[in-house]
Amino acid sequence: MTCLTLMALLEASGSVLPPEPFLPVPGEAQLKWHKAEYKMFIHFGMKTFYPSQNHKGNGEEDPQRFNPVLFDANQWVETARIGGFDGIVFTTKHHDGFCNWPTKTTKHSVELAPWQNGEGDMVEELVAACRKGGITFGLYISIIDDNYDLFGSNQYETYGDFYYDQLKEISTHYGPIDEYWFDGFNAAELKMDYKKIAELIRQEQPDAVVYDSGTMVEYLSDRCLAWPGRHGGVAPDQSYRVKVGERVLWYPNEPSLMLQGNWFHNGKSMVGLNEIKEYYLQTTGHGVTPLMNLSPNQKGLIDDESVEGLKIFKGWVDQLHSNDLARGKEVRVVAESVRGKAPEYAADRVADGDFETYYATDDAVTTAMIEVDLGCVQEIDGFILQEYIPLGQRVEAYSIECMVDGEWTEVFSGERIGYKRIILAGYGSERKMKIPATNKVRLKIKSALACPLISTFQVVGEMDPH
Q: Which fold has domain 325-460?
């Protein structure tokens, strides 16, 4: 069926054509990454057994110290599930060069460790646990290797060949990989064949997203994630539309941050609940998917108090998303303009709890007004907004207003929305924000690059302060 025939059938039936994609749009792996919302980062290796404030090591660490006698991959996965993490990204090799799998490229690996009498494979056990637990698996494999720098290799003339074979091993022996994480430290100076690495990933792991530190976006432009320029949170109003060379690509930032230790466990407890909330709101709440690092101890387990802290954090995240005044029985959601006056694009789509449905305007309309009548005056703590990003990032300026004493009062203004924008009074960039009690709120899209598509406009009621 031709496009013209489809259009004729739609017009004859009274149906309304969906919006065209506004390029660039996320690749399938990137969209899956957005929907993950937050993942667990796990640093575990030789530095676990040489605890200090320096996380990098030096390549001279003794594998005989590596002996996590109680290591339990299922405990790591269960902890991730308790905390609501979509998956785990694991340090298969950090800068010191020690490999957490029995690689054929070097003896500096678990084969020389007393753990499991040198016959263990931490990567294999964790992959199996992730699949059993229904979460994703990703790998960090450092492009720095201090052990190779010190001692070289009898098998390889160049580090590029050595590293490529390590990556090929881990890409072909463990089944599907959800994410590759290439540490950007000195990446440009190593002058490895990143095009060849990209081709390996495309062939062996076609569904993986790649945090590439600027090394492979030219070759894997449909799946790469960018270095935000710092660890920790990112600024609000994130743009996923980034010019790379002559092309504008979907290239979102992936922040990474420490919940415990100095990446590796060093005896410190996990940060408190309020700090985790701040991290979450300055990452997930700003439209990106962070890696939140937990550090297993020398026994090979995540600390009990960390598990308990993550359980409380997950309860808060669940409360935040279930607390939606816009979905009350007496609520009315209306808009001044609806695409083709079609019910499938009506304003109430923003309050149906389904990301895949969305409010839309006609193609020529790049402003919008969505009003939520709560039915009575209520206390409000914030808002959650989502664009339907499978068709592109569009909104460039917006505001939120509340009805106070019969007058509309602006309580927030922003630029971009993206996959998710969480606006919560008292936290992050909204620390000083005050939201008045109100019976009506409205979202004003002041400008957009194409007709706006709003999937979610959640009105967050009063949150439990604990």
A: Jelly Rolls (2.60.120)
| Residue 436, token pair as written in the block | 């008045």
pLDDT band at 6 (very low <50, low <70, confident <90, very high): very low
The closest alpha carbon to 451, from 386, 367, 369, belongs to 367
Tell whether the model's pLDDT for residue 184 goes beyond 60.
yes
CB 161 within 8 A of CB 120: no
Longest dimension (CA), the chain: 79
| Predicted pLDDT of residue 12 | 40
Q: What size, in residues, is the chain?
A: 466
Q: Which pair of structure tokens corresponds to residue 250?
A: 């979907």
∠ Cα 172 178 179 (to 5°): 95
Phi/psi of residue 191, each to 5°?
50, 45
Question: Per residue in 86-144, pLDDT tens?
Answer: 999 999 999 999 999 999 999 999 999 999 999 999 999 999 999 999 999 999 999 99
Three-state secondary structure of 362-382: CCCCCCEEEEEEEEEEECEEE
Q: How far apart are CA 102 and CA 122, in angstroms?
A: 9
Is there a contact between 63 and 291 (Cβ–Cβ < 8 Å)? no
**Confidence (pLDDT) at 466:** 62
**In degrees rounded to 5, what are phi and psi of residue 395?**
-65, 135
Q: Kindly list the domain boundaries of the chain, sorted by start residue.
A: 28-322, 325-460
The pLDDT score that the predictor gives to residue 200 is: 98
CA distance 162 to 142: 12
pLDDT at position 230 is 87
Structural Rg of the chain based on CA atoms: 24
Angle at alpha carbon of residue 212, lines to 389 and 200, rounded to 5°: 105
Q: What is the pTM of this model?
A: 0.95
> For residue 310, what are the contacts with CB-CB under 8 A and spacing of at least 6?
79, 82, 83, 84, 270, 294
User: What is the DSSP-derived secondary structure letter of residue 99?
Assistant: B
Cα–Cα distances in Å, from 338 out to 21, 115, 348, 359, 397?
Answer: 18, 63, 11, 7, 19
Q: For 136-175, how does the pLDDT look when each residue is reduced to its tens digit (9 = 90+)?
A: 999 999 999 999 999 999 999 999 999 999 999 999 999 9
Element (H, E) at 398: strand 395-404
Other Cβ atoms within 10 Å of 143 Cβ, number:
22
CATH 1.10.10.10 fits 28-322, yes or no: no
Locate 272 and state its tokens: 């408190």
Q: What are the distances in angstroms from CA 404 to CA 377, 381, 408, 410, 439?
A: 10, 15, 6, 10, 8
